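Final report, results section. Input specification for complex C-07:
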Amino acid sequence: MRILCILDSTGDRILIFDDVGATPACVEAKAVFDRMLARGCTAFKVNRADGKPDVKATDFSTLENETIVVPPIVGG
Amino acid sequence: MVDRFRTRPNCAVAAETRGRALLLRLLDPSQRRDFERHGYFSVQVAGRGTFWILPSTFFNVLHAETGDCYCAVPRAEVPLSDLMLGQKLLLEHEPKAFFRIANRRAELTPDPSDPESAPDRVMQKRNMPPPDRIRWSEVSMIPHANLFS
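Structure output:
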C-alpha cells in the first residue's frame, strides 16, 4: 500500500493505492501526481524503508511507501 | 478562496489539527522535541548551516549564524503546520529551490555566545508593540519623491 499526501487548505489530501500498476486507484494517483508536478509542486519520498533519508521524487513509478506533495512556493 | 476559508473557522482548526499531526509524524525525534516544547524546530541545510523554522507565516526561516530571516511560503493556502513541513522538506532536500525564491531580511544581530536563544529573540521582538514615540534620528529627512508633484 502506498500513500500520496498532498498538502492543501484542509491539511492534506490522501490518496492510497496498492502498487504501481493499472488499478483505478493507481491510475488516479498517477494522474494527480503528474498534474501536481506540472503545476510546480515538489514531491518528497518520506518514511522510506530501512530508515533511508527522505528524497525528492520526480517519477511516479519510483514512489515508495509515502510521498508528500508540497505546493509551489513564492517569496513572501 | 482565502475569504471562504477564513469564514469557516472550524475548517481552519480541523485543517491545522490535521497538519500538526502530519508534521509531528515526519519530524525527527530532536525536531519533534523542540517543536512540542517551543513551537519551532531546526533543520540542517547542506553547505549553509542551521536554520530555525518558526511558527509564523512570514519571514519564519531564521539562519542561526547570521540572524537573517527568509520568507518563501506555499502559494496555496495551507495550515501553518503544513507550511512548516513544506519548508522543512525543501530546506533539507531542495535548498537551492528554496533560496532561489526566498526573500531575505536581516532580523537580529546574532549572539555567538547563545545561538539557541535566537528563535525566542525573534519571536519576542515581533510580539513587541510598536514604539509610541519616534526619535528625530529615525525620521528620514529625504523628501518623498512625489511630495511636490
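Residues 2-107 of chain B form one domain. Strands of chain B lie at 41-45, 49-53, 61-63, 68-74, 103-106. This concludes the modelling results for the funded period.
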